[in-house]
Design brief:
With 316 residues, the chain is mostly helical. The chain has a single domain, classed as Ribonucleotide Reductase, subunit A (Orthogonal Bundle). It contains eleven helices and no strands. The radius of gyration is 21 Å and the shape is globular. Its cofactor is Fe(2+); Fe cation.
């Protein structure tokens, strides 16, 4: 007997999970709150920029936000800007019919508010260089985004991890910005991301029940090789270092507030009935958690030395 084709496996898992998608979509719609992006923008602080309106050029001293917060908000916004590619990715993976299609379009509609509100906030408060921001946006969106996840289960695992990581990135940037309006907006966006994470997390829990070994392997592959979708942003590595050094998002946060909560909620490390492939994947996850801890501790020591050197230089 020949094995089913990969496309048959994909169709099977999507079909088996469709009742879960419908149930979780109903739950999501009942919990989701309607909010208006324009109401989170301090319009009274805005003024014209240079250009056709002959306004005032942007200058760094006009921003009251710490540099690392500006980096974080810029990375968060440019990540949100690639929504057309994300929509294409999940629509292609999950389909546009039935409950799957309804979810894909609803998710896209909700995500679209994030970039609109963030960009307008940054412009109104002159928080970042608008010329740099637009040039980065053009490069980012022109390049697009491809996840390269090999299976539907990998794609589900990725969006589960990514939505929680994005929630933390927005929430922490808001907490660090020192601006009540910025914190309010970041918290509002983070609340959306949290609901999206809950949808995907609970959907993946059902996938673990249907295909425990394949889903555990997919999750281990994603967690052990995880990268945020904004890594192609110009200057990402330097910005990420500054963001990490400021305590906004770093490996320790990723381990403690993203990976560990997901593994606990999905009961991955305590689940019974796994075959050899699932057990091997779970062992790989355990080793990765140890590696994350060690790397986070090394980076924390580096950040502390950098901070001490900065303070020592400032006292001279």
């Amino acid at each position: 007997m020949t094995s089913p084709s990969p496309s048959h496996h994909v169709r099977d898992i999507l079909t088996e999970l469709e009742p879960s998608v419908a149930r979780l979509l109903d739950r999501h719609l009942a919990a989701a709150q309607t909010w208006m992006p324009h109401s989170y923008v301090p319009w009274s602080t805005a003024r014209d920029f240079d250009g056709p309106l002959d306004g005032e050029p942007w200058r760094p001293e006009q921003s009251a936000l710490p540099p690392a917060v500006r980096d974080s908000l810029l990375v968060n916004l440019l990540t949100e800007d690639n929504l057309p590619s994300y929509h294409f990715e999940i629509a292609t993976r999950f389909g546009r019919d039935g409950a799957w299609g309804t979810w894909v379009h609803r998710w896209t509609a909700e995500e679209g508010r994030h970039a609109d509100a963030l960009r307008t906030y940054l412009h109104a408060t002159r928080a970042v260089d608008p010329v740099e921001l637009e040039r980065c946006r053009m490069r980012q969106v022109s390049a697009g985004y491809t996840s390269d996840q090999p299976t539907v289960l990998h794609a589900m695992a990725y969006v589960t991890v990514q939505e929680l990581a994005t929630r933390e990135a927005h929430r922490n940037a808001g907490a660090a910005c020192g601006d009540p309006v910025g914190k309010l907006l970041a918290s509002r966006i983070a609340a959306d991301e949290n609901l999206h994470m809950l949808f995907y997390r609970d959907l993946f829990a059902d996938a673990l029940t249907i295909a425990p070994d394949a889903a555990t392997v997919a999750l281990a592959d994603v967690v052990c090789g995880f990268q945020m979708p904004g890594t192609a942003i110009t200057g990402f590595q330097q910005r990420a270092l500054r963001i990490a050094a400021a305590g906004i998002y770093h490996l320790g946060i990723h381990r403690e507030h993203v990976v560990l909560p997901l593994l606990r909620s999905l009961r991955v490390m305590t689940r019974t009935g796994l075959g050899p492939a699932g057990e091997a994947a779970r062992d790989r996850l355990g080793r990765h958690l140890d590696q994350l801890r060690a790397m986070a501790e090394r980076f924390q020591e580096l950040y502390e030395r950098m901070e001490a050197m900065t303070h020592a230089g400032a006292r001279r």
